[in-house]
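Our platform keeps sequence and structure together, in a single record for each protein. Such a record has a labelled line for the sequence and another for the backbone structure tokens. This encoding replaces a full spatial description with a residue-level series of whole-number codes. Below, we set out a record of this kind in full and without editing:
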Amino acid sequence: MTEADLTDEERERLGDVVALQPTKNAELADRWGVDGGSEVHSYLETHLGEYYFRDENSLIRATPEAAAVAGVAPGISDAEDGSRTVRVPDLQYHVLRVLADHDEDPQSVVSVLHDVRDLGESPDPDNDAVREALRSLANKGVVEKVKLTVPTYRLATPRADLTVERLDGRDTS
């Protein structure tokens, strides 16, 4: 399959893989509005097999040429000065807005949930949605999971060195 052979849907979904990487089947299933991870896996294998791979943690990543083909900037980019830009779905954007900085006491999922709700700008997430957002951000290396009796989280890098951009409004999480 060549770049010219991709349908509009395939190009759009490839863009999601590029922007959300590293990601999981479930996150793409939510984004695409499909029933589950097996449908995502089947789609990736059938339609985008040459543009993605799974890393050592079984997370989905785009190949280097996928970003150019999709015309989408990668979800994470690091600058030479040590700063980092991340492009995330709406809920992850709000989580990053409220999450404790790298040198502050970490927060529990419930604490982050309440802080996001207090913003009054996001759909009313539940505990599971915030937990999954934190896990996804931890997989991206943006958030650090601190091992305590109850898992807690904080930014992995100083807030001043982090630029967060919201992906378009197609996010369903």
